[in-house]
Each structure stands twice: as structure tokens, then as C-alpha cells.
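REVIEWER CHECKLIST
Item 1: Sequence provided? yes
Item 2: Single chain? yes
Item 3: Sequence as submitted:
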Amino acid sequence: MSHHHENNPHFLQAQQQQPHQQEHQNQQHPLRDPYLHKHDLKVPHPRRTKPTTWFLAFFCVILWVIIILGGLAVLIVYLVFRPKNPRFDIPNATLNAVYLDTGSLLNSDLTILANFTNPNKKVSIDYSYIVIELYYGNTLIATTSVDPFSETSAESNLQGIHLVSSEVSLSSNDIQRLKKEVGNNSVMFDVQGRFRTRSNFGSFLHYSYWLHGRCSIVLTGPPYGVLVSHKCKTKR
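Item 4: Structure as written out by the authors:
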């Protein structure tokens, strides 16, 4: 049987092809050395930080420094000067006239003595805009302005202000209320003021802001109505 295969030309050809096929497979799939494979890996190089990233970081640092220094400056100014808001008050007033024309139109004549007080010991105050408004209930019945002025530290300034209303229409509720108040010899008004002020911390540091003053005043009836009571508040 073996002799038959040795003489068979197909068997001899198959034996000759097997070594060549094995060699070809070894060339296509060579054995991989793990040690060599590890050394073939490329180590990534560290990336360079972009200039925009450095710029943003620098900008944030500068911004925080400015905020911290600004906060410290405000704190130092507050501790040194102890600033307080100016006060608006009405220590005296006179009701010269108040009556209804044709049963629903209000006419009035009121003089108030307004007191502007600077309570600060180290801060001067400038008033650049002053408007005074007179209300009966929720209705604006008169308005006027006051010339600008300044106050040194711990100074008070008295201003005589004349408020006249002419034929101002009132609601039916306000008409009934006014008649009752005149009959009871006790008339109530609201005086409101808007002030543009500037606080001066020395010669170089200034701070401007708006102030709002409000006073509720009660007077006796005209023609010589005097101030009976008042309550005032001043806020920003």
C-alpha cells in the first residue's frame, strides 16, 4: 500500500507542496513578540496650552484682583466716613386755603417749611435737582421745584416752598373725604420729594444717587391752618 503511494505522482506532488504552503502561512502570520510590540507603541507628546486659554486665565485673575481691591476700597471709605443719607423733613406748614369749585374741582394754597439735613460729619452734600409734589389722597394736585444748593457736613438748610393747586378734579370718594376733614378741622396731605444728590468724600471722591422723601402732614382748616402732626421718611 505504501509502495503504491510512493509511486503515485499525485501523492508526491502533494508532499512537495505541503512545506511550501506551511512556509507561506508562516510568512503571512508571523509570530508576534509581545516585548517588541510594546516598544512599538508611540507615547503621545503633551499638548501645548493655547494662547487664548492663557489670556482667559490672566483676564480672570485681573478681574478678581480688581473686585477684591474695589471691595476693600469701599469698605475703607465706609469705615472712615460712615456715610448717611440726607434727611427731608417738614417742621412747619400753613394751609392758606382749600375749597371745592363747582362741587368737584379742588383749589388749595399751602406753604411748607422744608428742612434738608446733612447728618454726616465728614461728608458734604450737593443737591442738583429738587422737585416737590403735593398729593391729596392719590391725586397729584401741585408741584414745584427748588433751586440747587449745597450743604457742608452736619448742616441743615430750610427752604420755604409754596404749593398752589387750581381746579384739580377729584374722585367722589376724595370729595366726600375732604368735606369731612374740613368739617373736623383736620386736613391731611402728602408731600413727596425727588432729589438728585451727590456725596463728596473729600475733594476727589464723589458719589451721586437719587433720594425720595415723603411726609404725611395734618393741618387745621384755613385760612390760618397750622401744622398739627407730620411723619416723614427719606430713602433711596
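Item 5: Key structural point noted by reviewer: The mean pLDDT is 85.
Item 6: Recommendation: ____
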